[in-house]
Amino acid sequence: MNTQPEVFTDVFGAAKLGPVTLRNRIIKAATFEAASPNALVTDDLIRYHQLPAAGGVGMTTVAYCAVAPGGRTDGWQIWMRPEAIPGLRRLTDAVHGEGAAISAQIGHAGPVANARTNKAPALAPIRFFNPLSMRFARKATKDDIRDVIAAHADAARLAIDAGFDAVEVHLGHNYLASSFLSPLLNRRTDEFGGSLENRAKVARGVVRAVRDAVDSHGAKQIAVTAKLTMTDGVRGGIPLDEALQTAKWLESDGGLDAIELTAGSSLVNPMYLFHGDAPLKEFAGAFKPPISWGMRMTGTKFLREYPYREAYLLRHARAFRAELTMPLILLGGITNRETMDKAMAEGFDFVAMGRALLAEPDLVNRIKADSAVRSLCTHCNKCMPTIYTHTHCVVTGAPDALTI
Questions:
Q1: Domain boundaries, the chain
Q2: To 10 degrees, what angle do helices 201-217 and 142-161 make?
């Protein structure tokens, strides 16, 4: 008979994330807001993050802060450079004014990058055609890899200067570091290909560079987290056991304060992250021919449909919780108090919310006041195609952001 007392972690209690104290354990997931048309902060972008901050989240995460102009998924996204700092400082000040912390998601989109709108080459482990940009990503050289790793360190320093409390390193969704981890996308024969140990060198190198930059900055210590794909749901892609080994290496390297566990691929299988309806018609309407024609004809192969359920990534995430001791952030289908409490009971340290906060930026405060509150999000996913114009919930009309 188990006589150990049940451990209860209050999701609304204050919590430490590395050197940072959050007022609760609820994080607004890194999202693309479609609110930076000149690749700089706007009042619109500030409002996107001020709303959920006022609505009760412990921390909101700004996306997508690319480490280089060629690392953006589209040319209107922010990339980290001195010119962006004054606007980012206005943004962090506004969020801090609401009592929340703020993180910057930094990364390089790799083969997901839109070389056409970026007006810069996209990078990949091997030469790769991106049908959404109708351009080839070129094979990253060793110099390219070194430059990208250094750019992550520079971005972390700029994030500190801009007043961020944390940076989230993007190691997921087949962005550059994740594409190197994928056996399907990484067919190199040099020291960055072949074995998982070789394929993980980019991810580990990026995290190490960011940690060194943060530790050596001196003025302010911030948290360093990473978003890591557990599996991309693609045959021949990233399998769960390899992702778990990568996570173990990242834990032993000591560069991270937490890992946010994600799934799917922005490149080949985005719905594996979202679950729910696949808005094929709306996605096709967001593009011009010939991409829209191709989307209508073959879109079901790209937008596969996965039934929605609460905490739908928990099944995969349990394997990571069982093997790792470091803090973990559970993402995917977190919309009510019952699910939050379940995540806490299973040993996760934080939960991350995306679409539910898109529909209702004040949802966290409402759940705190009444545990019976349920999200208005219907998981129709029609918010997904709005990232090409101005991200919003088509059900409630609320402006916020969509996880990518």
A1: 15-270+314-373
A2: 30
Burial 228-258 (b: 16+ CB within 10 A, else e): bbbbbbbeebbbeebbbebbeebbeeebbbb
Peptide bond between residue 82 and the one before it cis (omega within 30 degrees of 0): no
Give the CA distances from residue 119 to residues 113, 133, 139, in Å, rounded to whole numbers and listed in that order: 10, 11, 17
Tens digits of per-residue pLDDT, 124-161?
A: 999 988 776 778 899 999 999 999 999 999 999 999 99
Q: How far apart are CA 276 and CA 272, in angstroms?
A: 9
Instruction: Name the nearest CA neighbour of 324 among 343, 353, 349, 352.
Output: 349
From the candidates 48, 64, 175, 308, give the one annotated as an active-site residue. 175
Tokens matching residue 332: 């995917």
Q: Give the distance, in angstroms, between the CA of residue 186 and the centroid of all CA atoms in the same chain.
A: 21
pLDDT for residue 1 = 38
Which residues partner with 123 through β-bridges? 138
Residue 384, pLDDT > 90, answer no
**pLDDT tens by residue, 292-320:** 656 666 666 778 889 999 999 999 999 99
d(CA 67, CA 104): 11
Summarize the confidence of residues 24-32 as an average pLDDT: 94
CB distance 63 to 155 below 8 Å: no
Scan for tokens 């996570």, then name that residue.
247
Question: Is 22 in a helix, a strand, or coil?
Answer: strand
* pLDDT > 80? residue 28: yes
* pLDDT of 351 strictly over 60: yes
Query: Is the CB of residue 265 less than 8 Å from the CB of residue 303?
Result: no
Give the count of beta carbons closer than 10 Å to the beta carbon of residue 81: 16
**pTM of structure:** 0.93
What values do phi and psi take at 393, rounded to 5? -85, 125
Half-sphere exposure of 75 (CA within 13 A, CB side): 8
Does the annotation mark 175 as catalytic? yes
Q: Is the peptide bond before 64 cis (omega within 30 degrees of 0)?
A: yes
Check whether domain 15-270+314-373 has CATH 3.20.20.70, yes or no = yes
Residue 260's beta-bridge partner residues? 227, 329
| Contacts (Cβ under 8 Å, ≥6 apart) of 159 | 65, 80, 88, 104, 106, 167, 222
Burial class (CB in 10 A: 0-12, 13-18, 19+), 137: buried
In contact, 71 and 176? CB cutoff 8 Å: yes
